[in-house]
Write a structure and sequence with these properties.
It is a single chain. This protein has about 425 residues and is α/β, with parallel strands linked by helices. It is about 40% helix and about 10% strand. The strands form 3 sheets. It has a 5-stranded mixed β-sheet with strand order 2-1-3-11-4, sandwiched between helices. Strand 1, helix 2 and strand 2 form a beta-alpha-beta unit. The two termini are about 25 Å apart. It comes from Plantibacter cousiniae (nom. nud.). InterPro entries: Bact_solute-bd_prot1, SBP, TAT_signal. It holds the Pfam family SBP_bac_1.
């Protein structure tokens, strides 16, 4: 930066909304020690019970043994972005961050917290290994590739055909069929659609339902601005959501459920239908997966713009970001990152964790049949729709989740639209 303003001062000012956040003193514990010559540090969301976490740890350990180079790991979940930013302000961030492209991370490269990697993509021989659409999605408006796209997102709908058979119905492909299926399931004491109405998973389904009435261009503008009332398709989508809700399509008290409880309910046969990303489907036990088929969210019976049931698809999974500290160690990061894109490591992730990867490959998971089904859905079967996370301002995310939780309750379409737009206005 010019005029004596350092990158970290600028980053701190922007993160703090114009008020400089004090640099942490003694924040070394935020990042594992990597001061040994030849070592690197990696801050990752692939941790705990997250699909792929064990595979990643094993891959890193194997790399360390093979190269005799230490790799220090710091693991965080949804709080990784703020932890990384805090450590970056003090100049103690990890060399690599492995985190999703959404919310706060959208501005990291522009602010200088991470470096653009489009030149490294070619220098390190990775361009031809990564799905071109993934590179496009991870490139910002200035033409900079923010990070190396690593995992991706496939968000189908799973149907327990065993429970559907007990209710005497088939997999629904239209909204009218879905309402009839919900009635039949309820008559047998079975919950219809379960979803985390109180968190991000319910938010995603709400926005997916709206996209049944929105062209891609209109969806982009509506989710960027929040002005649902200016788009007839968005209004129709909200009204359709309310119609489905009031018809009993969602399980009782769905506004109190989370992404964890939805999966528990589905896995224990208390609900027959769940929209869940493929990494969650990797956690469905084999006994349950044997009676499940994967498809899309039923098309609107009237007034919709999609030809087939919809599936959210995005290349916006975990990316490999290089920090300002990492920029000083490119010769060490190069072989580590190249190894992560090797065919062997890609296969380990797909076969060992059921993850969808941004590396070009024809490997299909055999141990995770639902993930395999989802990866093989074609445009003759489903219509892909966007994951709006790249369009929604970070400050809107939590307020929007509160709005969608209200939507799963008893709010009218007008109330939902009004509160949705207020969330953007407040941000």
């Amino acid at each position: 930066m010019t005029d004596g303003i350092s990158r970290r001062t600028f980053l701190g000012t922007v993160i703090g909304g114009g008020v400089m956040i004090p640099l942490l003193t003694g924040c070394g514990p935020l990042v594992p020690a990597s001061g040994v010559p030849g070592s690197i540090s990696v801050h990752t969301q692939l941790s705990g019970a997250v699909s792929g976490a064990q595979v990643f740890s094993d891959v890193v350990a194997a790399y360390s043994r093979a190269t005799d180079r230490a790799v220090a790991l710091l693991k965080n979940g949804s709080d990784l972005p703020i932890v990384f930013e805090t450590s970056s302000l003090a100049g103690k961030e990890a060399d690599i961050a492995m985190v999703n492209l959404q919310g706060r991370t959208l501005s990291w490269t522009r602010l200088g917290a991470t470096i653009p990697v489009e030149d490294l993509l070619d220098d390190w021989g990775l361009r031809d290994k990564i799905i071109p659409e993934a590179l496009e999605e991870w490139t910002d408006e200035d033409g900079h590739l923010r990070a190396f796209p690593f995992t991706r997102t496939n968000w189908p709908v799973s149907f327990n055909t065993g429970l559907l058979a007990e209710a005497g119905v088939d997999v629904p492909t239209t909204s009218d069929e879905l309402i009839l299926v919900a009635d039949a399931l309820r008559s047998k004491g079975i919950g219809p659609v379960t979803v985390g109405g109180s968190d991000w998973s319910g938010q995603k389904l709400f926005l997916q339902i709206l996209q049944g009435f929105l062209t891609k261009d209109d969806a982009t503008r509506a989710f960027s601005t929040g002005k649902l009332s200016e788009f007839p398709g968005a209004v129709a989508g909200v009204e359709h959501f309310v119609e489905l809700r009031d018809a009993g399509v969602f399980v009782d008290n769905v506004q109190g459920y989370t992404s964890d409880s939805e999966l528990t309910q589905f896995n224990t046969r208390k609900a027959a239908i769940v929209p869940a990303m493929s990494s969650a489907l990797a956690l469905v036990p084999a006994e349950r997966a044997a009676e499940v088929t994967v498809g899309g969210w039923p098309t609107p019976s009237q007034g919709g713009v999609v030809d087939h049931p919809t599936v959210i698809q995005s290349y916006n999974g975990h990316g490999i970001w290089i920090s300002a500290n990492g920029a000083e160690k490119l010769e060490l990061l190069k072989p580590f990152i190249q190894n992560l894109y090797s065919p062997e490591v890609t296969s380990e992730f797909i076969l060992g964790s059921g993850r969808d990867m941004n590396r070009i490959t024809d490997v299909v998971s055999t141990a995770f049949p639902l993930v395999a089904q989802a990866s093989q859905l074609t445009t003759d079967q489903v219509t892909p729709v966007m994951l709006p996370d790249l369009l929604i301002p970070d400050a809107v995310f939590e307020p929007m989740i509160r709005v969608t939780a209200m939507a799963y309750g008893s709010a009218s379409a007008d109330q939902i639209i009004d509160r949705f737009e207020q969330a953007y206005d407040a941000a």
